[in-house]
Amino acid sequence: MRAHPAGALHGDVTPPPHPLRQPADLGFVDPAIWPIGAERVGGAMQLGGCDVRDLLAKHGSPAYVVVEDDVRTRCRNYKAAFGEDTDIYYAAKAFLSKAVARWILDEGLSLDVATGGELATALAAGFPAERILMHGNNKSSEEMTAAVAAGVSRVVIDSEHEIARLAHIAEAAGVVQKVLVRVTVGVEAHTHEFIATAHEDQKFGFSLSSGAAMEAVRRVIASPSLELVGLHSHIGSQIFDTAGFEVAAHRVVGLLAAIRDAIGVTLPELDLGGGLGIAYTDEDDPADVAEVAKQLRAIVERECAAADLPVPRLAVEPGRAIVGPAGVTLYEVGTVKDVDHIRTYVSVDGGMSDNIRTALYDSAYTCVLASRESDAEPMLARVVGKHCEAGDIVVRDVWLPADLAPGDVLAVAATGAYCRSMASNYNAVPRPPVIAVKGGTSTVLLRRESVDDLLALDLG
Ligand SMILES: Cc1ncc(COP(=O)(O)O)c(C=O)c1O
Q1: SS3 state at 273
Q2: Residue 137: exposed, middle, or buried by beta-carbon count in 10 A (0-12, 13-18, 19+)?
Q3: % helix / strand / coil in the chain, to the nearest 5?
Q4: Can you tell me whether residue 379 is helix, strand or coil?
Q5: What mean pLDDT, rounded, does the chain reach?
């Protein structure tokens, strides 16, 4: 946190200029950050053709809003960028509901699930199991049994124990389960520690450098009820360039060659995971998906040519890049508190229970006054939630109009991924609804929880 000058708490001291750039237009709805079609009409923001004031009047506050056309467009862009020779598994952990599963399916994507709950949601939506891949570093026997029984296309093996467990489950079911082995390639993705997943010191996958990955490959190949079809590598999330993927591809293709040389097996598939970043604020400059797709393919082709290997069928697993920018959280302002010229705290009716990312990863978000326009002076604000926690911050630093008042609506951009899916009931706060908007119509995808829902779990 920025230190304030000595005496600032007691004297009338003007704080130094804040490093956050002050936008020329506080109400600007930047298309690089906000969902497709987001605009101001008569001063108020519209999402999917719906006025945010009407959305809150109808569905209550706070609310997650997801712009269907935005999600669909991003699916299409991925399909067009990667082409038919790459499988695109949408990573359900970013956000999944039955409707979203159907949008993904309509747009020709496959689905990556990481738990039995995500699998059940996908199946309840009618998502074909043969287009589902299952992840997880500690899948329970029940989860793997459900996956095998449903007929999921691939299970990504993450540990030694799992090889034996899954082999047993597949054998008992009388099937041969296709699997990938998750490899930890030792790449430090330039992202937050908790969302970087391929450096050596973490819980996922089999280490390449220690030989554990090769050993896992041998064990899977020796299991008659498992069919090893390829390798998997996921280097992290919110990544803006292909440098990390380049090193990962180099190492994982090296392992493909080593497997061929040592065991005589040429594996036909390579899954490079997800991880492409999005713009949360105007400081972020995400790479163009078509350019990334071109570069990834070129890297894999070059590495395969060097190792004299056929180019495997590629798969990718985007989550955030599909749903992140499509989502906006709407909050009502409850209090506005000026803290002795340091900053203004704006409290909203949600917080870390509906968006834990700021507290967990120190993520940056931006927001605007969405229910009206204002030509008041800018004030440096911190948007905080209603929870009993000093770290309950929604937007750490943002310029908002100084006439902001209780009852105003704030819209926080790019909350479509890892917000509702990571939401909690901290302080017994019911989770907000997810409202889909399209062509001026709003539809509830997930209803708002009530205190009665929470009490129903409490058996006294
Ligand atoms: C194995 C795997 N695949 C895909 C993803 C999706 O990543 P992102 O949402 O950053 O694209 C994750 C995210 O944690 C992951 O662990």
Answers
A1: coil
A2: middle
A3: 30, 25, 45
A4: strand
A5: 92
Instruction: Work out the angle at residue 454's Cα, subtended by the Cα atoms of residues 449 and 458, and round it to the nearest 5 degrees.
Output: 165
Ligand 1 contacts CB of residue 416 (under 6 A) = no
244, 255 Cβ separation under 8 angstroms: no
Rounded Cα–Cα distance for residues 446 and 424 (Å): 15
| 364 contacts: CB under 8 Å, gap ≥ 6 | 280, 281, 283, 358, 395, 396
352 and 423 Cβ atoms separated by less than 8 Å: no
Tokens of 77: 């862009």
Tell me the C-alpha distance between 368 and 374, whole Å: 11
Q: Which residues pair with 331 in a beta bridge?
A: 410
- The span from the CA of 368 to the CA of 75, in Å, is 27
CB distance 236 to ligand 1 below 6 Å: no
Residues 36/73, Cβ–Cβ less than 8 Å: yes
CB atoms within 10 A of CB 210: 12
pLDDT at 198 over 90: no
pLDDT-derived band at 341 (thresholds 50, 70, 90) equals confident
Q: What is the DSSP letter of 96?
A: -
Q: Ligand 1 pocket, 275 CB below 6 A?
A: yes
Q: Which of 183, 187, 237, 272 to mutate to test the pocket of ligand 1 (most atoms within 8 A of CB)?
A: 237
List the one residue out of 57, 314, 291 whose CA is nearest residue 180. Answer: 314
The strand pairing partners of 99, in sequence order, are none
pLDDT tens readout for residues 240-281: 888 888 889 999 999 999 999 999 999 999 999 999 999 999
- With b meaning 16 or more CB within 10 Å and e meaning fewer, what string describes 249-260? bbbbbbbbbbbb
Catalytic residues: 388
Which protein residue's CA is at the shortest distance from atom 12 of ligand 1?
274
213's CB contacts (< 8 A; 6+ apart) are 181, 183, 184, 205, 206, 207, 231, 255
Please identify which residue in the block is written with the tokens 């293709």: 253
CA–CA separation, 351 and 8 (whole Å): 28
Helix H or strand E segment including 456: helix 451-457
| Tens-place pLDDT, residues 392-426 | 999 999 999 999 999 999 999 999 999 999 999 99
